[in-house]
Design a protein that fits this description.
Blueprint lengths: L5 E6 L9 H10 L2 H7 L4 E5 L4 H11 L5 E8 L5 E4 L1 E3 L26 E3 L3 H10 L4 E4 L6 H10 L5 E7 L19 H22 L3
Parallel strand pairs: 1-2, 1-3, 3-8, 4-7
Antiparallel strand pairs: 4-8, 5-6
Helix pairs in contact: 1-6, 3-5, 4-6
Length: 211
Protein backbone atom coordinates (compact mmCIF):
# COMPACT_ATOMS: atom_id res chain seq x y z
CA UNK A 1 0.00 0.00 0.00
CA UNK A 2 0.96 3.63 -0.39
CA UNK A 3 0.43 6.63 1.86
CA UNK A 4 -1.05 8.36 -1.17
CA UNK A 5 -4.05 6.04 -0.89
CA UNK A 6 -5.39 7.60 2.30
CA UNK A 7 -6.58 11.14 3.01
CA UNK A 8 -7.48 12.23 6.54
CA UNK A 9 -9.40 15.47 6.95
CA UNK A 10 -10.02 17.61 10.01
CA UNK A 11 -11.08 21.22 10.53
CA UNK A 12 -9.65 24.37 12.00
CA UNK A 13 -11.21 26.98 14.26
CA UNK A 14 -14.65 28.45 13.70
CA UNK A 15 -16.92 30.81 15.68
CA UNK A 16 -17.21 29.66 19.32
CA UNK A 17 -14.57 26.93 18.77
CA UNK A 18 -11.10 28.54 18.84
CA UNK A 19 -9.40 25.14 19.17
CA UNK A 20 -11.05 22.52 17.01
CA UNK A 21 -10.39 19.01 18.38
CA UNK A 22 -11.13 17.47 14.97
CA UNK A 23 -7.94 18.96 13.58
CA UNK A 24 -5.95 17.69 16.56
CA UNK A 25 -7.41 14.21 16.15
CA UNK A 26 -6.86 14.14 12.38
CA UNK A 27 -3.16 14.87 12.92
CA UNK A 28 -2.91 12.19 15.60
CA UNK A 29 -4.48 9.58 13.34
CA UNK A 30 -2.19 10.53 10.47
CA UNK A 31 0.82 10.20 12.79
CA UNK A 32 -0.14 6.67 13.86
CA UNK A 33 2.87 4.33 13.75
CA UNK A 34 0.51 1.55 12.69
CA UNK A 35 -0.57 3.45 9.58
CA UNK A 36 3.00 4.44 8.78
CA UNK A 37 4.11 0.81 9.00
CA UNK A 38 1.34 -0.44 6.73
CA UNK A 39 1.48 2.42 4.21
CA UNK A 40 5.23 2.96 4.17
CA UNK A 41 4.84 6.64 5.08
CA UNK A 42 2.46 8.97 6.87
CA UNK A 43 -0.87 9.40 5.07
CA UNK A 44 -1.90 12.81 3.83
CA UNK A 45 -3.61 14.94 6.46
CA UNK A 46 -5.42 18.17 5.66
CA UNK A 47 -6.86 20.45 8.33
CA UNK A 48 -9.28 22.60 6.37
CA UNK A 49 -10.24 26.16 7.10
CA UNK A 50 -13.84 26.10 8.26
CA UNK A 51 -14.93 28.10 5.24
CA UNK A 52 -16.92 27.20 2.15
CA UNK A 53 -14.13 28.49 -0.06
CA UNK A 54 -11.85 25.79 1.37
CA UNK A 55 -13.87 23.14 -0.49
CA UNK A 56 -12.48 24.36 -3.79
CA UNK A 57 -9.10 25.63 -2.64
CA UNK A 58 -8.10 22.90 -0.14
CA UNK A 59 -10.35 19.83 -0.27
CA UNK A 60 -10.75 19.34 -4.00
CA UNK A 61 -6.98 19.45 -4.75
CA UNK A 62 -6.44 16.83 -2.02
CA UNK A 63 -9.19 14.62 -3.44
CA UNK A 64 -7.67 14.90 -6.92
CA UNK A 65 -4.41 13.25 -5.83
CA UNK A 66 -5.62 9.69 -6.51
CA UNK A 67 -6.88 9.04 -3.00
CA UNK A 68 -8.46 5.62 -2.50
CA UNK A 69 -10.11 6.25 0.87
CA UNK A 70 -11.06 9.32 2.89
CA UNK A 71 -11.64 9.68 6.63
CA UNK A 72 -13.22 12.99 7.63
CA UNK A 73 -13.45 14.17 11.24
CA UNK A 74 -15.53 17.05 12.54
CA UNK A 75 -16.83 18.29 15.87
CA UNK A 76 -20.55 18.27 16.74
CA UNK A 77 -21.23 20.80 19.46
CA UNK A 78 -24.16 18.94 21.06
CA UNK A 79 -23.00 15.38 20.54
CA UNK A 80 -22.37 13.15 23.56
CA UNK A 81 -20.83 10.27 21.61
CA UNK A 82 -19.11 9.62 18.28
CA UNK A 83 -21.55 10.02 15.42
CA UNK A 84 -20.91 7.96 12.29
CA UNK A 85 -22.50 9.93 9.47
CA UNK A 86 -24.33 7.79 6.93
CA UNK A 87 -25.18 10.57 4.48
CA UNK A 88 -24.67 14.18 3.45
CA UNK A 89 -27.46 16.39 2.15
CA UNK A 90 -27.46 18.90 -0.69
CA UNK A 91 -28.23 21.68 1.76
CA UNK A 92 -26.57 24.62 3.49
CA UNK A 93 -27.48 26.87 6.41
CA UNK A 94 -28.33 30.47 5.55
CA UNK A 95 -28.14 31.63 9.18
CA UNK A 96 -24.61 30.73 10.29
CA UNK A 97 -21.63 32.34 8.53
CA UNK A 98 -18.41 30.38 8.11
CA UNK A 99 -15.08 31.30 9.69
CA UNK A 100 -14.60 33.95 6.99
CA UNK A 101 -17.94 35.54 7.81
CA UNK A 102 -19.46 34.33 4.52
CA UNK A 103 -23.03 33.08 4.13
CA UNK A 104 -24.17 30.79 1.30
CA UNK A 105 -26.46 32.57 -1.19
CA UNK A 106 -28.91 29.63 -1.46
CA UNK A 107 -30.05 26.53 0.42
CA UNK A 108 -28.59 23.99 -2.00
CA UNK A 109 -24.90 23.13 -2.27
CA UNK A 110 -25.08 21.94 -5.88
CA UNK A 111 -27.95 22.87 -8.19
CA UNK A 112 -27.34 19.85 -10.41
CA UNK A 113 -26.45 17.39 -7.65
CA UNK A 114 -28.67 14.77 -5.98
CA UNK A 115 -30.62 15.55 -2.81
CA UNK A 116 -28.22 13.43 -0.77
CA UNK A 117 -25.16 11.20 -1.06
CA UNK A 118 -24.64 8.19 1.17
CA UNK A 119 -21.78 6.09 2.51
CA UNK A 120 -22.05 2.29 2.65
CA UNK A 121 -19.34 1.93 5.28
CA UNK A 122 -21.02 3.18 8.45
CA UNK A 123 -21.96 -0.25 9.82
CA UNK A 124 -18.43 -1.62 9.58
CA UNK A 125 -17.08 1.54 11.19
CA UNK A 126 -19.56 1.29 14.06
CA UNK A 127 -18.48 -2.28 14.75
CA UNK A 128 -14.81 -1.26 14.74
CA UNK A 129 -15.40 1.68 17.07
CA UNK A 130 -17.43 -0.34 19.55
CA UNK A 131 -14.82 -3.10 19.60
CA UNK A 132 -12.42 -0.45 20.86
CA UNK A 133 -14.89 0.47 23.59
CA UNK A 134 -15.82 3.76 21.92
CA UNK A 135 -19.37 4.98 22.44
CA UNK A 136 -20.64 5.48 18.88
CA UNK A 137 -23.95 5.65 17.06
CA UNK A 138 -25.08 6.08 13.45
CA UNK A 139 -26.36 9.48 12.34
CA UNK A 140 -28.41 10.56 9.32
CA UNK A 141 -27.81 14.27 9.86
CA UNK A 142 -24.34 15.71 9.33
CA UNK A 143 -25.77 19.18 9.90
CA UNK A 144 -26.05 21.98 7.38
CA UNK A 145 -22.64 23.57 7.88
CA UNK A 146 -19.12 22.82 6.64
CA UNK A 147 -19.06 19.22 7.86
CA UNK A 148 -22.05 18.36 5.70
CA UNK A 149 -20.81 20.44 2.76
CA UNK A 150 -17.36 18.85 2.65
CA UNK A 151 -18.79 15.36 3.15
CA UNK A 152 -21.23 15.90 0.28
CA UNK A 153 -18.36 16.93 -1.98
CA UNK A 154 -16.07 14.06 -0.95
CA UNK A 155 -18.79 11.46 -1.47
CA UNK A 156 -19.14 12.61 -5.08
CA UNK A 157 -15.82 10.90 -5.83
CA UNK A 158 -17.32 7.44 -5.30
CA UNK A 159 -14.44 6.12 -3.18
CA UNK A 160 -14.79 4.68 0.34
CA UNK A 161 -15.41 7.77 2.45
CA UNK A 162 -16.74 8.28 5.94
CA UNK A 163 -17.37 11.25 8.21
CA UNK A 164 -16.97 10.85 11.97
CA UNK A 165 -18.33 13.53 14.28
CA UNK A 166 -16.74 13.82 17.72
CA UNK A 167 -18.12 15.65 20.77
CA UNK A 168 -16.63 18.93 21.80
CA UNK A 169 -13.83 18.49 24.34
CA UNK A 170 -13.27 20.62 27.46
CA UNK A 171 -11.36 23.83 26.88
CA UNK A 172 -7.65 22.92 27.34
CA UNK A 173 -6.99 26.39 28.67
CA UNK A 174 -9.46 26.06 31.53
CA UNK A 175 -7.86 25.16 34.90
CA UNK A 176 -8.72 21.73 36.35
CA UNK A 177 -9.68 21.12 39.97
CA UNK A 178 -8.92 17.41 39.83
CA UNK A 179 -6.70 14.95 38.05
CA UNK A 180 -7.87 14.19 34.53
CA UNK A 181 -9.02 10.58 34.20
CA UNK A 182 -8.55 8.36 31.17
CA UNK A 183 -12.22 8.76 30.26
CA UNK A 184 -11.67 12.51 30.15
CA UNK A 185 -8.78 12.03 27.69
CA UNK A 186 -10.68 10.38 24.83
CA UNK A 187 -8.27 11.45 22.07
CA UNK A 188 -6.06 8.48 22.92
CA UNK A 189 -8.77 5.85 22.45
CA UNK A 190 -10.36 7.70 19.54
CA UNK A 191 -7.06 7.77 17.68
CA UNK A 192 -6.65 3.99 17.69
CA UNK A 193 -10.30 3.42 16.83
CA UNK A 194 -10.18 5.86 13.92
CA UNK A 195 -7.07 4.14 12.59
CA UNK A 196 -9.13 0.93 12.54
CA UNK A 197 -11.81 2.73 10.51
CA UNK A 198 -9.21 4.02 8.06
CA UNK A 199 -7.88 0.50 7.52
CA UNK A 200 -11.40 -0.79 6.86
CA UNK A 201 -11.92 1.87 4.18
CA UNK A 202 -8.57 1.06 2.59
CA UNK A 203 -9.41 -2.64 2.49
CA UNK A 204 -12.70 -1.88 0.82
CA UNK A 205 -10.99 0.38 -1.70
CA UNK A 206 -8.65 -2.45 -2.64
CA UNK A 207 -11.56 -4.85 -3.02
CA UNK A 208 -13.23 -2.45 -5.45
CA UNK A 209 -10.22 -2.58 -7.74
CA UNK A 210 -8.78 0.33 -9.78
CA UNK A 211 -10.98 3.40 -10.06
Amino acid sequence: MSAQELLIVGFGAFPRVPINPSGLLARRVAASPRLKLLLGARPDCRVLRTAYSAIGSELEPALAEARDAVVMIGVAMRARRIRVETRARNRTNLLFPDADGWLPPRLGLDRSGPAQRTSRHARAALIALRRRGVDAAPSRDAGAYLCNATYYRALAEGRPTLFLHIPRLPDPGRPRRHRVSRRERPLESWTQAFVDVALILLARARSQGPR
